[in-house]
Amino acid sequence: MNEAITSTSSSLRQRWDSLLSASPALRIRNAAAELGVSEAELLATRIGDGVTRLRPDFRAILGEVGKLGRAMALTRNSDVVHERKGTYLNPQLGEGHVGLFVGADIDLRIFWHAWAHAFAVLEPGKEGARYSLQFFATDGEAIHKIYLVPESDAGAYHDIVAQFRAEDQTTALHATPVRGEHPERPDAQVDVHGLRAEWLALKDTHDFHLLLRKYMVSRTQALRLAPEGNWAVPVANSALRATITRAAAEQCPIMVFVGNKGMIQIHTGTVAHVMDVPNWFNVVDPDFNLHVREAAIASSWIVRKPSVDGVITALECYDAEGRQLVQLFGKRKPGIPELEQWRTLIGTVEAAHRPA
Asked: Which of helix, strand or coil describes residue 122?
């Protein structure tokens, strides 16, 4: 059995090497998709060759990453990548279902149920060796990656790797599917009156998720069934580009949320440099990078929710399966009303980007 697993892993490694020979710049995520496996399964074939499997003591590992000092946090989903440099401060990792890092730079919401695998990775780069800690879900999809930057404490990194190195360093990894979302119910089966009434009675935008669960609706279904008025307004998918470009031009501080099944990563502040490369719209600032595959955006909405601090406005973008890709707000904290600059900006985008 072990010989069969080792043989399969070795074969996968050989197929990956062949791909890289033909396309040296091919990223591991794209290689995994081309080979019909998960990223974690592919990464595991290099255990012992720059990759070390770590014990799945995720809370303990993350409890140590503040010692790295300045690092780069990366969270992505299928079509949006969020990279933020800073220090992992103020960890709240406890015993609950959700963990937190709350800092001006690294701001994370961690959903532990999805976490399954951890690795330390050494990979060659244009400017020398590149070290990272990488975390994956049971299906082998990446949840979060922490990359060292020149200012990071490399000694602390190696201490973490030594402390959490797993006894099992075999090159095989078995990915198992994650249970999908419940299929969307027909609108006719939803208590639309109740949903709308409770939407209008919200006191905290974080309670919107509880509202979805109570009425058993998906996010995009809730947006379609929103209260009458401008609480959920569909806009053209060009709205994301327009909003970020205008925010950069006006230096309007924003909040950019990108998440997956195990993590939400947040940037708060201004953005400055936007750039296009083929198929991607990008923010490329010194401490914050955002990469969006615009063709994947299937629907975009300007969404308003009441709160004790007044109405809070967001731009939300979804893929064809109704999964949220990215969410934008104006910079704010609890107890502080929404920025008028943001409210004006998003109102201008709403007026100019009505669906065709």
From this structure: strand
